[in-house]
């Protein structure tokens, strides 16, 4: 449901401004540690960043608060989007500047990582952008353009080298080749899950819609698979695949387990999409002389496509997250850095795997949600 376009002040935006300001005031903006394995000492924003960074962040926060106090208007929402995007970029630049200053006066092994204050304020700024886009009732294409513009600016900031002193970027610099390979492997895991899940799950959903007597047993079985812990499901296939000569660990058991996990959302949404088609449309198609197959392909599937894609959206986000766990059985992917970091007590190495996985899931969810909204309209 979209927020109301009229009314009084924007309570959501005001709450985000207050929460972000409180986080910057009470938590460390960055943390300085003598090496990558030790927890850092939190450093407040006004001590870590320069005066103009602090002033700019305060001014943008005040601008967002002013936009929240006034009754919602189209220009006010556009101002909130611009201010929140600028705030997000300024927070990143301030963190990079602080890390560079601290690195210049510290031993080579010292690390400066992003603190809780930064993460909280960045999250509040991102949510403020989402809230303003929804209140403005921005069309899907425009939302995609805003997201692409912000992503391009962040990438430009990364390419400029102003963030290179941050511990997370130093971890990436030390493992850039391995990171690229594991990111590609993660994408292979996700794609290798989606294709068989759609090929198998969609016909199962069609079967459930056409054969009500089989529906209970079909979805009951798929529900049972969902209750099995992911680690256990990965492990169940190690011995059978090893006995079959297909390799007990690695890509094969990971793809089988991830595909099984993905069947229920695809099948359930396929069934819901087909059953949700207006019966009058089906009767009209039948009255025009269409065969059952023509009705399926020309009427039921097109009208049920938004619901089906909602299942694809769920499966995609789920597969990106579960593919991280697949690193435990040698399947590779971004989870490799997560578990290496846990083993070494190196939080930035954990973030090197976790943050790209989160961003990949958010980007996939965002693009698919826009596609679904466009088809629904």
Task: Write out the CATH superfamily name of the largest domain.
Answer: MetI-like
The CATH architecture assignment of the largest domain turns out to be Orthogonal Bundle
Strand residues, percent: under 5%
Helix content: over 70%
Could you list the spans in which at least 5 consecutive residues all have pLDDT below 50? 1-5
Briefly note the structural class of the backbone: mainly alpha
CATH class of the largest domain: Mainly Alpha
Order of helices and strands: HEEHHHEHHHHHHHHHHHH
Distance between the termini: 15 Å
CATH topology value of the largest domain: MetI-like fold
Number of strands: 3
Number of helices: 16
Cross-sheet strand order for the largest sheet: 2-1-3
Integer average pLDDT: 89
**What is the radius of gyration?**
25 Å
In one word, what is the shape?
Answer: flat
Domains, number = 2
Sheet with most strands: 3 strands, antiparallel
Main features:
377 residues; mainly alpha; MetI-like fold; 2 domains; 3-stranded antiparallel beta sheet; 16 helices; 3 strands; 77% helix; disordered N terminus
Provide a short characterization of the protein structure:
With 377 residues, the protein is mostly helical.
Walkthrough of the structure:
The protein has 377 residues and is mostly helical. The chain folds into two domains: 160 residues, no CATH class; 201 residues, MetI-like fold (Orthogonal Bundle), CATH 1.10.3720. 77% of the residues lie in helices and 3% in strands. A hairpin with a 7-residue loop joins strand 1 and strand 2. The N terminus is likely disordered.
């Amino acid at each position: 449901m979209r927020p109301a376009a009229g009314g009084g002040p924007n309570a959501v935006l005001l709450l985000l401004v207050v929460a972000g300001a409180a986080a910057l005031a009470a938590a460390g903006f960055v943390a300085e540690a003598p090496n990558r394995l030790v927890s850092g000492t939190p450093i407040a924003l006004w001590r870590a960043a320069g005066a103009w960074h602090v002033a700019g962040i305060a001014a943008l926060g005040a601008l967002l608060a002013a936009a929240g106090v006034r009754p919602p208007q189209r220009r006010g929402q556009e101002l909130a989007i611009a201010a929140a995007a600028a705030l997000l970029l300024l927070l990143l630049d301030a963190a990079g500047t602080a890390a560079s200053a601290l690195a210049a006066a510290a031993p080579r092994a010292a690390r400066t990582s992003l603190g809780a204050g930064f993460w909280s304020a960045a999250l509040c700024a991102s949510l403020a952008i989402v809230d303003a886009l929804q209140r403005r009732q921005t069309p899907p294409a425009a939302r995609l353009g805003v997201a692409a513009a912000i992503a391009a600016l962040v990438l430009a900031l990364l390419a400029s080298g102003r963030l290179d002193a941050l511990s997370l970027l130093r971890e990436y610099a030390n493992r850039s080749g391995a990171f690229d390979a594991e990111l590609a492997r993660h994408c292979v895991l996700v794609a290798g899950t989606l294709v068989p899940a759609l090929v198998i799950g969609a016909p199962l959903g069609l079967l459930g819609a056409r054969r009500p007597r089989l529906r209970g047993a079909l979805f009951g079985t798929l529900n049972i698979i969902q209750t099995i812990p992911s680690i256990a499901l990965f492990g169940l296939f190690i011995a059978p695949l090893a006995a079959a000569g297909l390799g007990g660990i690695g890509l094969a058991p990971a793809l089988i387990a991830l595909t099984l996990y993905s069947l229920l959302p695809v099948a359930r949404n396929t069934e819901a999409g087909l059953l949700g088609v207006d019966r009058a449309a089906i009767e009209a198609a039948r009255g025009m002389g269409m065969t059952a197959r023509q009705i399926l392909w020309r009427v039921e599937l097109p009208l049920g496509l938004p619901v089906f894609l909602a299942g694809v959206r769920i499966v995609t986000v789920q597969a990106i997250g579960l593919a991280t766990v697949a690193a435990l059985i040698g399947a590779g992917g971004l989870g490799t850095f997560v578990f290496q970091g846990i083993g070494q007590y190196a939080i930035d190495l954990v973030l090197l795997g976790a943050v790209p996985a989160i961003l990949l899931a958010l980007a996939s969810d965002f693009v698919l949600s826009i596609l679904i909204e466009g088809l629904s309209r």
